[in-house]
């Protein structure tokens, strides 16, 4: 293999990529929820819960949030054999990889330069997923594979080995920029610190005063230290000398850093290490035990508290998400979970003062997530991490549905603008499709969106006459430009150089896959896969030919 070659993961259908429609979001105020009053000045009210296909939702978020997300956590379907009864092993694997790849590419674009992605997965796909993430994020941006102890009890009826862990793959958008936050020491890690001599510098613990060098290697570190009580010279061993030379030792004595132990006549010197100097935080490690990150039983108990009649089957514990968000984010940062499940990510992010966006396709978006978050906001949820962060409630979220596809087929088989779109929705959708920011002016009717300070977009379902176009061109003036999306227009578009005229739906029909509402990872919703990629269909004549004047 040459230096220019690189290993790539291949699968059936890898070359097939969806042409996603960037949908708009429609709020359902009846399902949005906000606290009646502010609890603190840091309350966050603009969190977002989206009910709909998560690939379409990620595409919908891309225009407004690209490069802004500090942390993405996803807990995708693990692609276990039992989930794919209608597919053989090779095909199920390929479908799963393709659907994950499409999501990861958008997630990467959403992440800030100092952002990170955390993916929980088991052994079934972890190593294939790792190689695919290397392709999407770059192998140099792989940070770590965290091993999380998801259960304690052994599965004695396991056919091979009893599985006790899951993987958490961690990638940075840019590893050179991303740095983890320290994790707080737990009670066991603080247990060694005390202040038995009432040192004004606070809690401390003593550490060894020797180093792993021999007298022959470091003769200058083999010397006698006078015992302060007996006057005896205390020497290190021949195979493990003092860790500091005589001058440094003398400075330690002057600074009151030498501890001779409770039995001052027998003990050797040790060095005081103060908590305020080393800090209460530790560099995160890659082995997360259940006592510090929770396990499946913790998660089930938490889920049971919100819906005992229909317990969500595969939740993640709040302690696990708390640890991830502590490492990856700070207060006010934006967190996304596009496989929301039972809503743990949003619940934890809310309690920790992070902004959040969650996406969930299933009905449990309404039956599980909404009531759970309502309890969080009310402050009545005192489970999970609530007591640890002293959660009192506050804030809120808005509930959105994905808009229907912009184009639909009428009874004569023609592609037309969906009847479910009003004028404002149409303008917003076309802004998103064309890469404009939807920002309708209160005073200038044709300024419905902009791509810069001088480039605007105007949408109308009317047929524009030459007189109207001339008036628009004069209003736009020199140094500005206007993209007009209309049903039709009359006249020669070249007469108005500051106007760009396009007919809808002619102009947009080839941009996306219209009417495709489900790209989910639930294989039951997918069509039967082909053994070989199907040949492209023959070209068909269009119902909307040309984009010249009507």
Automatic annotation (TrEMBL):
UniProt protein name: site-specific DNA-methyltransferase (adenine-specific)
Which positions are tagged coiled coil?
Answer: none
Instruction: Give me any GO biological process, just one.
Output: methylation
Asked whether the keyword Cell membrane is assigned, the reply is no
Q: Does the keyword Chloroplast apply?
A: no
Q: Could you list this entry's UniProt keywords, alphabetically sorted.
A: Methyltransferase, S-adenosyl-L-methionine, Transferase
Q: Which InterPro entries match?
A: DNA_methylase_N4/N6, N4/N6-MTase_EcoPI_Mod-like, SAM-dependent_MTases_sf
> Annotated region Disordered: where?
528-550
Q: Can you state which reaction this protein catalyses?
A: a 2'-deoxyadenosine in DNA + S-adenosyl-L-methionine = an N(6)-methyl-2'-deoxyadenosine in DNA + S-adenosyl-L-homocysteine + H(+)
Q: Name the source organism.
A: Sphingopyxis bauzanensis
> EC number(s) in its UniProt entry?
2.1.1.72
Similarity annotation: Belongs to the N(4)/N(6)-methyltransferase family.
Which residue range or ranges hold the DNA methylase N-4/N-6 domain?
69-364
